[in-house]
Amino acid sequence: MTRMDRRTRVLVIAIVVAFIAFLDGAVINIALPAIEAELGGGLTLQQWAVDAYLLTLGALILLAGSLSDSFGRLRILRIGLYGFAVTSVVCAIAMDGAVLVVARALQGAAGALLVPSSLALIIANFPAAEQGRAIGRWTAWTTSAFLIGPILGGVLVDLVSWRLVFAINVVPIAAVLVMMRPLGRDEPNPDRARVDWLGAVLGVVGLGGTVFALIEQGRLGWDDPLVYIPAVVGVVALVAFVLWERRAAAPMLPLTLFRARNFAAGNLATWFIYAAFMLGLFALPIFLQEVGGFSATLAGVATLPPTALLVLLGAWFGTLGGRYGPRFFMTAGPIVVAVGYLLTLMIDLPVQYWWQVFPGMIVVGLGMAMTVAPLTSAILGAVEPSRAGIGSAVNNAVARIAGLVSIASIGVIVAGQLDVDGYRRVAIVTAALLVVGGVVSWIGIRNPAATAPDVGAVQPATSAETPAPEDRPRS
Q: Among 3.90.550.10, 3.90.1170.50, 3.50.50.60, 1.20.1250.20, what is the CATH number of 257-475?
């Protein structure tokens, strides 16, 4: 195999692997009402079907990067693919909610191995001069998962079954495993770093305990030992995680990264912004199907405008952010998204999509396009190039964990029922989180010295190439 043939094969494999992981996150929200209708469990099962996956994915994605570096990209990628295939089949054949939730948690653990390894595979096989173009193609193709996912999920649910949403993963996984055969095996890494297993365990226990309490309190109440004991254990584990990461020889989460102002402020803004992104896009498809009477396919199409505008305009706003600095866009973008969600407060029964939902979704998409690429640029620009990989992984983990917590909290927000009043409360909370994210950006983010503009009178300036918008909305 020539070097060029190998690079082409590696790029295709990396794209398909990430596409599988992103597609799974994009289709699940559309399938939730059908899953609940067959398995029962109400809103609690719907929350767990999403959060079980996000829990292990968010908690283990940093560890996965370390495993990839230590034991080899191809080895970790194969393990992740086999794990994702098996757990997808278990999800597809699950006959009760408990089995589905456990399988989704294991699927998230397998998914955590895929995305970091796919990017690391590109870095390892492409020379520095070609990496930017290769990652750009990776980003463009994997972004299409967020366009295809809602429609594909809706069609599969309406015409066949929600079970096919999971079972279909097996086909591309089998194709990728066949494509990987000519790549051989990884060379041993004699200088592999120590893996932070204790940090990973503390992270999973901490997030698992707090998320369990947030979801189950709606059913059991805060005074139930099954709620407050996991909550206490979770909080203690999270505190212990931070303390351990400060002293660990090879920490899973290098806290020294947060000494950079834009990295710290950008990740704090990410927490609020992505908590809102995922909360809003979790609630709306469920509401449209269960209350509005939309089919799964129509609900998927109805929530497509934000992703379509993100794909169409994201690179343009990324260029503007690189030219004028990210601060203005990270401030204005979330506030524009907040306005979009406030426009959906017009929702009532019967749902009139074109004037109650569509205008708000267009504004939401415009604001998301303004926000995502400049946010990524600000965060990655705040760390040394040699640490850009871990910086991106930290930001991805923050975004996913923020969504995990916000979805876990939806039962508190809607008081157990996602009716018209419940959705309106979600829209208000979503808008409030976005405004906070915008304010944090304005206060905390600083434009690079050579590109710092006055917001009222923007002056063009040169800047480094804007990184691709890797941290788009996840499910």
A: 1.20.1250.20
